[in-house]
């Protein structure tokens, strides 16, 4: 099997989404135990066109599309896991949810720390220290959020599927056969994990904002919001670079904090979770014509599959 493309994924409710260069497939377990697999085309201009080869710009477009795709996948998986008959994968509600999630995230993690610093700013003589304090508050918010949501039972199950996603991709990239036994042996950590990406966003924001001085508060808030896209683009390129050079000792040191943080966002999956992760990746490889149905080991799962063209926003 070709490993020239780095496959990615996301844990969803009672399931796993896997994404390639041209296709996305997700597998969700229904209440009766069967697995529903849904596939659709991705936007070719974003994932396999000229934009995908332009540094920084590719990160912004891919991240925006991935965010929308992830929200829609979560909504789809919620309907399937609850046994809903009329399952939709797109629509204004999905994109409205994306917009609302962005506003809340920016407000809490970027504007919130700045407002907190504003209460004590008069006693901080150094512009650099003021911005540095803001950055460490942002980091504390992020770590506290990741730690706290792990106590929610439903989120813990999603974190189990997160572990299944990582194990499945690790097994594939190692050339293992995609069976529960071989996938189960693999690590639940992965260098291209979204958790590591978010940590890099926070750390890069500390470095960038620290040198911006201390203009009036309104201008500081505006700069934080406007520079989010730049910081995300930088973090995306850094994630790709470190993943491609992880065999070097200095890169291993750089990625270690992200791997440690994944201990909070992943759980050891049970075998049914692994089956779902394998079903999603197997279908994606078949859709991408990397393997055939005959080359895949029989899973014993009752699987129903659907496939559509790329959904319009």
Question: What are its keywords?
Answer:
five-stranded mixed β-sheet; globular; disordered C terminus; alpha+beta; 313 residues; 10 helices; 10% strand
Description:
With 313 residues, the chain is of the alpha+beta class. It has one domain (8-308). It contains ten helices and five strands. Strands 1-2-3-4-5 form a five-stranded mixed beta sheet. A hairpin with a 3-residue loop joins strand 2 (15-19) and strand 3. Helix 2 (57-81) crosses helix 3 and helix 3 packs across helix 8 (217-244).
The gist of it:
The protein has 313 residues and is α+β, with helices and mostly antiparallel strands. It has one domain (8-308). It contains 10 helices and 5 strands, in the order E-E-E-E-H-H-H-H-H-H-H-H-H-H-E.
What characteristic shape results from the CA principal axes? globular
Q: Within the largest sheet, what's the order of strands?
A: 1-2-3-4-5
Query: What's the rounded overall pLDDT mean?
Result: 86
Largest sheet: 5 strands, mixed
Q: What oligomeric state do the depicted chains represent?
A: single chain
Ordered list of secondary-structure elements with their pairings:
Layout: E1 8-12, E2 15-19, E3 23-29, E4 35-41, H1 44-47, H2 57-81, H3 92-120, H4 127-149, H5 153-173, H6 180-184, H7 194-210, H8 217-244, H9 249-265, H10 271-287, E5 303-308
Parallel strand pairs: 4-5
Antiparallel strand pairs: 1-2, 2-3, 3-4
Helix pairs in contact: 2-3, 2-8, 3-4, 3-8, 4-7, 5-10, 7-8, 7-9
């Amino acid at each position: 099997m070709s490993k020239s493309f780095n496959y990615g994924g996301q844990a969803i409710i009672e399931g796993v989404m896997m994404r390639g260069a041209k296709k996305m497939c997700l597998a969700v377990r229904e209440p009766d135990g069967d697995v529903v697999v849904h596939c659709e085309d991705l936007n070719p201009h974003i994932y396999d066109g000229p934009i995908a080869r332009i540094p920084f710009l590719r990160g912004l477009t891919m991240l925006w599309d991935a965010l929308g795709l992830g929200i829609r996948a979560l909504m789809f998986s919620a309907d399937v896991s609850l046994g809903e008959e009329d399952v939709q994968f797109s629509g204004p509600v999905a994109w409205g949810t994306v917009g609302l999630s962005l506003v809340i995230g920016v407000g809490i993690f970027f504007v919130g720390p700045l407002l907190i610093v504003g209460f004590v700013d008069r006693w901080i003589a150094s512009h650099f220290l003021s911005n540095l304090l803001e950055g460490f508050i942002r980091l504390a918010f992020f770590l506290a959020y990741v730690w706290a949501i792990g106590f929610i039972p439903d989120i813990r199950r999603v974190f189990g599927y997160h572990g299944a996603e990582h194990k499945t991709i690790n097994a594939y990239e190692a050339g293992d056969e995609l069976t529960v036994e071989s996938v189960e042996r693999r690590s639940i950590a992965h260098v291209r994990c979204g958790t590591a990406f978010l940590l890099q966003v926070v750390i890069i924001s500390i470095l960038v904002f620290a040198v911006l001085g201390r203009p009036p508060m309104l201008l500081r808030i505006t700069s934080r919001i406007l520079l989010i896209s730049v910081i995300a683009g930088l973090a995306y390129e850094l994630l790709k670079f470190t993943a491609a050079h992880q065999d070097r000792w200095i890169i291993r040191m750089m990625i270690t904090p992200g791997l440690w943080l994944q201990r909070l966002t992943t759980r050891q999956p049970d075998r049914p979770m692994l089956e779902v992760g394998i079903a999603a990746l197997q279908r994606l490889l078949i859709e991408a014509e990397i393997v055939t149905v005959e080359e895949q080991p029989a899973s014993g799962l009752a699987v129903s599959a659907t496939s559509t063209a790329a959904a319009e926003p």
